[in-house]
């Protein structure tokens, strides 16, 4: 009897969920038919987003109109009213190739954990596009970011390192060592051996590590060690080409098998004793 009741309840829940999905899918913002929320454009947040550095949003409208009005808005909580951002030294906008860019200069904690969106409209278009909540990375050493969009075997890979404000202001108290780990093996990268090259982007205050002829031995995690008075380093980022997935699984399995064998041998030795 209880089983039949549960089945009926599940059917009712399924029907209600289906009705809610259909209704929510057909709701659009005020405007002209399909020019509502479903046809607005692409809004994205350029990575990485680092506390104390500039943050850039990019919006490409589906129906570009040079005379349309674009408003950048944000709010802290869902129930709050959206606030339109003013254009000043803090918030600047520029347009290039039918894409709008908003720059938040020297991002602060007050810019973080807020929802951001655009309001784009003219006589026939009226839509909103949400990009979600802004999260700012903060690390005493800095932040590393994989700049290459695609990693392929024997290709070139670029990794960015953004030093923290603390490191830039006190550069004499810190070091900068690029490190590579795979499994339990770890090494300091030698920037003079021809496989690795470091350049400094003065305009953006960042270092770029270029890895040439990327091969299977170069897969793994990369980070920067800042040294200093204690263990100070960036978060690790994982870099590998897709064909390595099976190799990683086999590598992990082999380690587990070795550990299991060693554990069994130790157990046998303890039993004999």
What does this structure look like?
The structure is a single chain. This protein has 273 residues and is of the alpha+beta class. It has two domains: 33-133, Immunoglobulins (Immunoglobulin-like, Sandwich); 142-243, Immunoglobulins (Immunoglobulin-like, Sandwich), CATH 2.60.40.10. 21% of the residues lie in helices and 33% in strands. The protein contains three helices and 16 strands. The protein has helices spanning 2-26, 165-169, 245-272, and strands at residues 41-45, 55-61, 69-75, 83-84, 91-96, 99-104, 115-121, 126-133, 142-146, 157-163, 177-182, 185-188, 196-201, 206-211, 220-225, 237-239. The longest helix has 28 residues, at 245-272. The termini are far apart. 18% of the residues are buried.
Could you give a short description of this structure?
The chain is of the alpha+beta class and 273 residues long. The chain is 21% helix and 33% strand.
Structural class: alpha+beta
Q: For this structure, what is the CATH class of the largest domain? A: Mainly Beta
* Uncertain parts: 13-38, 264-273
What's the CATH superfamily of the largest domain, by name? Answer: Immunoglobulins
What sequence of helices (H) and strands (E) makes up the elements? HEEEEEEEEEEHEEEEEEH
Q: What is the total domain count?
A: 2
**So how many helices?**
3
Query: Which range does the strand content fall in?
Result: 25-35%
- Largest sheet geometry: 4 strands, antiparallel
Helical coverage, percent range: 10-25%
- Could you tell me the radius of gyration in angstroms? 26 Å
Counting DSSP E segments of at least 2 residues, the number of strands comes to 16
- CA-based shape: globular
Which strand order spans the largest sheet, edge to edge or round the barrel?
1-2-6-5
Please report the distance between the alpha carbons of the first and last residues: 61 Å
CATH topology of the largest domain, by name, is Immunoglobulin-like
Average of pLDDT: 81
């Amino acid at each position: 009897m209880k089983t039949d009741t549960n089945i009926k309840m599940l059917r009712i829940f399924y029907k209600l969920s289906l009705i809610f999905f259909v209704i929510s899918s057909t709701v659009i913002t005020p405007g002209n038919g399909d020019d509502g929320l479903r046809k607005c454009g692409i809004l994205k947040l350029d990575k990485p987003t680092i506390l104390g550095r500039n943050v850039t949003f990019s919006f490409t409208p589906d129906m570009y109109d040079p005379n349309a009005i674009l408003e950048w808005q944000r709010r802290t909580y869902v129930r709050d009213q959206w606030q339109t951002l003013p254009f000043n030294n803090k918030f600047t906008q520029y347009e290039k190739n039918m894409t709008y860019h908003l720059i938040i200069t020297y991002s602060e904690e007050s810019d973080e954990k807020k929802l951001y969106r655009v309001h784009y409209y003219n006589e026939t278009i009226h839509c909103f596009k949400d990009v979600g909540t802004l999260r700012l990375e903060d690390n005493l050493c800095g932040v590393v970011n994989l700049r290459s969009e695609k990693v392929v075997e024997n290709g070139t890979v670029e990794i960015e390192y953004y030093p923290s404000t603390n490191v830039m202001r006190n550069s004499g108290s810190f070091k900068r060592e690029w490190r590579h780990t795979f499994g339990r093996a770890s090494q300091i990268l030698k920037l003079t051996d021809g496989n690795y090259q470091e350049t400094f982007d003065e305009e953006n205050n960042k270092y770029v590590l270029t890895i040439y002829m990327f091969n299977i031995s170069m897969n793994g995690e990369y980070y920067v060690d800042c040294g200093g008075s204690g263990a100070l380093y960036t978060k690790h980022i994982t870099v590998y080409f897709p064909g390595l997935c099976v190799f990683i699984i086999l590598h992990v399995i082999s380690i587990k098998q070795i550990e299991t064998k060693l554990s069994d041998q130790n157990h046998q030795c303890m039993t004999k004793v």
